[in-house]
Amino acid sequence: MPVKSFKFISPGIFINEVDNSQLPKAGEELGPVIIGRTERGPAMRPVKVNSFSEFVEVFGNPIPGGQGGDIWRDGNYTTPTYASYAAQAYLRNSNSATVVRLLGADQDGLADGVAGKAGWETTLQNDADFDDNGGAYGLFVFTSGTAVTPVDGVLAAVWYLATGSIELSGTTRGHHGVAPLSQSAAALYADSSGDFKAVIRGAGATGPTSIATEFNFTPSSSKYIRKVFNTNPTLTNSSITQADQVESYWLGETYEGHINNVLGGTISTWGAVLGLDSGSSNAANFRTGFQAAQTPWFISQDLGDPADFQAEDMTKLFKLHTLDAGEDEQKKLKISIADIKAPTSPDQKYGSFSVLVRDARDNDNAPVVLERFSSVNLNPNSSNYIARKIGDQYLTWDDVIRSHRVYGNYLNASKFIRVEMNTDVDAAATDASLLPFGSFGPVRMKSWNWTSGSVSPASSWVTGGKGVARAENGVAQSPDGQFLSVGGALPVPTSNNFNGTAYYPAIPLRVSSSAGGLSNPKNAYFGIDTTQNGNNRHDSSYSDVVRMLPPAISSFATTTSTEFSYMFSLDDLTSSSVGTNAVGIWVSGSRLAGNAYSSGSYTGVLDAGYNRFTVPLCGGFDGLDISEKDPFNHTRALDGTDSTKYAYYSAKRAIDTVSDPEVVEYNLMAMPGIFKESLTSHMVEVCESRGDALAIIDLDSGYLSDAESTAAIADRVGSVSTAITNLRTRAMNSSYGCAYYPWVQINDTISDSLLWAPPSIVALGTFSSSQRKSELWFAPAGFTRGGLTEGSAGVPVIQTRERLTSKNRDDLYEANVNPIASFPSEGIVIFGQKTLQVTPSALDRINVRRLMIFVKKEISRMAATVLFDQNVPATWNRFMSEAEPFLRSVQARLGLSDFKIVLDETTTTADLVDRNVMYAKIFLKPARSIEFIALDFVISSTGAGFED
Known about the structure:
Elements: E1 32-36, E2 47-49, H1 52-59, H2 71-74, H3 82-91, E3 97-101, E4 120-121, E5 135-143, E6 151-161, E7 165-169, E8 183-184, E9 189-190, E10 196-201, E11 209-215, H4 225-228, E12 249-254, H5 256-263, E13 269-275, E14 285-286, E15 298-300, E16 316-322, H6 328-332, E17 333-341, E18 352-359, E19 369-376, H7 386-390, E20 394-398, E21 403-407, E22 417-421, H8 423-426, E23 436-440, E24 443-445, E25 448-451, E26 471-472, E27 475-476, H9 479-482, E28 499-503, E29 509-510, E30 526-528, H10 542-545, E31 562-564, E32 567-569, E33 573-578, E34 581-586, H11 590-593, H12 603-607, E35 613-616, H13 646-657, E36 668-670, H14 677-690, E37 694-697, H15 720-728, E38 737-741, E39 744-748, E40 753-757, H16 759-773, H17 782-785, E41 797-800, H18 806-814, E42 818-823, E43 827-830, H19 846-864, H20 873-892, E44 896-902, H21 910-914, E45 921-926
């Protein structure tokens, strides 16, 4: 305290205590960056989590693999998500990690059809004999009727064929100039007591029957379509599926909810299998990179004449996007607008409303709100402006600068969504009284009419179906008569006229506030209804309706061949009576007819208590090859370059997203399970370039999981010699990388499953536990800090893939690979701590490299506090007064044996002062670990004295 700070009025002695012994505050704890697959979450950008529970909240639970089931609809759980286990292992003993979730991206500028495009495709074969279809095929189901009585129909299901053909079998509605066919594609067949029969054949005109089965759309039935057909796309991949189990197809989308909504309880129906292809837009071509899901546009209320009302003409206000999350978020989240309030006085120009992020599987009786933004508005100058409250920033990747560009004005406050505003609303150029009153529906293909002998319109998406030309009843059949060919007439005979309109899927809308048995009808959320017709259980087909359309067809904007699946507005709510109670009913056209609550003023519906509605998230895509158990496998997915393999490009791009130390801080890097040499080398290069992180890499040891090959385990288990040979051929020499061997078996304590895991996972966990037990500059190895059986890995370790002998350990350590050894008494232990530096020095050990990373980082933070201060001895001394106590503390904690800092006129010379440079020399003597212990036991005679 300076003298002028004392209060000198009357005589006395004034005492103050000054504590200059305080250690400088250490920076925020750094953790690793972990790159890999997770169950869900933000994609291809670094996200920091501060606990394993937060990791699970954002990225989902670890997946042990080995789970089958309905993979198309429920997701791929066939292989482990190693990144999740790495996060679990590290966060068991630390509280900070940065995660980059891998999804499929492709290099800018890649043309369609190039092998490097992300996503997946089954190709339609346009061969003259119609004998090897491939592609996507839809089942269209119609109610019974005649040309005089037009009927409704729906797209009910989609099969994806890698090869071969699919047809219906049974009783045809008629024939087309030939005898009735017992089996065909593109012809109408009657159901039998609600059941259809499909025949799937292998390739060729005489291809064998793969499956012939009856099916229906009743989930409780043993013939339910998703029970009797293959729903696992990976079974079409012969590289990872045993030959006797390979399938030629899989069942994709089924639309039970849409069927019930359009056809209701119809008993008698007709069905036809038609190819979903119009030449330019194959419905089985999903070759594109990942994209975020989004809501359709929210639209305003009508402020004009009710007689002119058209919902599609209302002002677009905003839409919401998920935060780069791929497909998972649209399955599990939906958005509700609630508490819509009109302005209450002339001085209050803007109304307000709330935005709710809800669980898509809930119902209006028991809403599950995951996030709420209350009392937001559309006033750009308000602190409650929706874009400001939720956030509108998003990232785009630039392949030229190899970095993200940030767009938007407001930081994202939501964990799930961001806002996209109409530019006119953002500029306050719209009417201030506008409020969100409804939304467009998701985009779908336009409906089309099928009449006897007609040609389907080009926009129908069904003009490219093909089947197998074969003899029927001993008569050779022409494909034109049986099968839908490009531009050909739909084969419905004129002798039995038919007139039907086919509708593509849409999400059902709530039509009554009393639906679902709400105790208070005013609590009803109009808009989409994600429950099954007639009960409050979730409609599992909802996830198929909100899927992305093929990239050739926009999922978010209409074209000549697409339309919005619905137009919803609260302006169309009207009143009705249920018993003695008045309830709200949504009927499209009510406002136009003049009988809506809002026919007088839009506030009428709000005054009636109906001020909430729900919209879907749709169109998200993972960009992954769904025919692979592991989309980032080494045998096929990573075996290429940026332009030839999207998985390789995605993994390299993920590394590049964390290459800039000013974007994200970390001190370790791991990409568990990916051992592609060029990618792991890139990891080490990035860490070395930054100078503040150590890469823990996995090696190509010859070990392959069952996601790579169908070979017996004995032929893909790997070996010490393979690991050493492959590493030596790379000629790596860097102290910023380290490697371990072999793979280990761990126990997933959440699912109680056993799985084989790459060694980088347990190494990362050991780094965490070691620094918690002691300091990060202590060797993360040995029985004290590297005992995996004793829990050092952060996850339970059961056994090693290979039991190493003493010679194996010697060979590995000589090659700078750290062995994971198994001992009879001590259990499984990490028995080495070398970096990948070949040149002998103190930095060929992990504990020294981690010490230097820590010291450099902390000293650089102290130096930053004097940046732009005066370059004079007083400033130098201030820096020294922080750096010396810090290094003394490290020395006291056994990190250094000695140190010295030189910062005076001998280092910062007059010439450097003139060039605005402060130059210090810091000399360090790192403390070395004990790796070899030599003990001489000398046997002496009885009369010898030990003092000699």
